Amino acid sequence: MSQFFQIHPENPQQRLIRQAVDIIKSGGVIAYPTDSAYALACDIGNKNGADRIRTIRRLTEKHNFTLVCRDLSDIAVYAKVNNGQYRQIKAHTPGPYTFILKATSEVPRRLMNPKRRQIGIRIPDNKITLALVEELGHPLMSTTLSLPNEELPMTDPYDIRASLEHSLDLVIDGGFCGFEASSVIDLSDEEPVVLRRGCGDVTAFE
To answer: Which of helix, strand or coil describes residue 3?
Structure first.
């Protein structure tokens, strides 16, 4: 049975943020709000948590997870970024974008497609998310909360609790989120490529 925290979207209660991070550090899998839809997450080193997320979403081993970072300082640790890429990311973060970049050796192999050695990087414009990552001290391993056979991501924390309370350790109610996932921009090559149009204006990458 998952716990259920109601956290204020503009002024997150630090006591609840600390409790949520304790759950993450102890191996928990959580559902949490972003600046697009709700997402699933666990600690970056939590292999069992990643497997549980794959089971919930029925993902294959080839699925790329996203690293949710607190700010631009985290990106260079986990991704290879040149000056042009850095400027593009800086201009669009925090925001509803996932950037695909070449991964550094700091990224666990199980989080990447083994043939590509790429990783998704995300800095959401959501105060709850940023408070969680700040308290945790390193990125969250995350993926959009889309259930099998459903076209749209989940947006209502009460629906999430009803559907997944036996599969998750914590559901964070941060209010209603939108119906779209983040836009996905591949910056791993010379020219940016829009892989998925979601939230956010992507005209700068076309």
So the answer is: strand
DSSP-assigned letters across all residues of 113-136: -TTT-EEEEE--S-HHHHHHHHHH
Q: How far apart are the first and last CA of the chain?
A: 45
Cβ proximity of 94 and 104 under 8 Å: no
Domain ranges of the chain: 3-200
User: Which phi and psi angles does 37 have, rounded to 5°?
Assistant: -100, 180
Q: Are 154 and 147 in contact (CB under 8 A)?
A: yes
118-174 pLDDT, tens per residue? 899 999 999 999 999 999 999 999 999 988 888 888 889 999 999 999 999 999 999
Domain 3-200, CATH: 3.90.870.10
What pTM value is reported for the model? Answer: 0.92
In this structure, what token pair is assigned to residue 39?
């997402």
Q: Tokens 């009460």 identify what position?
A: 158
CB 92 within 8 A of CB 72: no
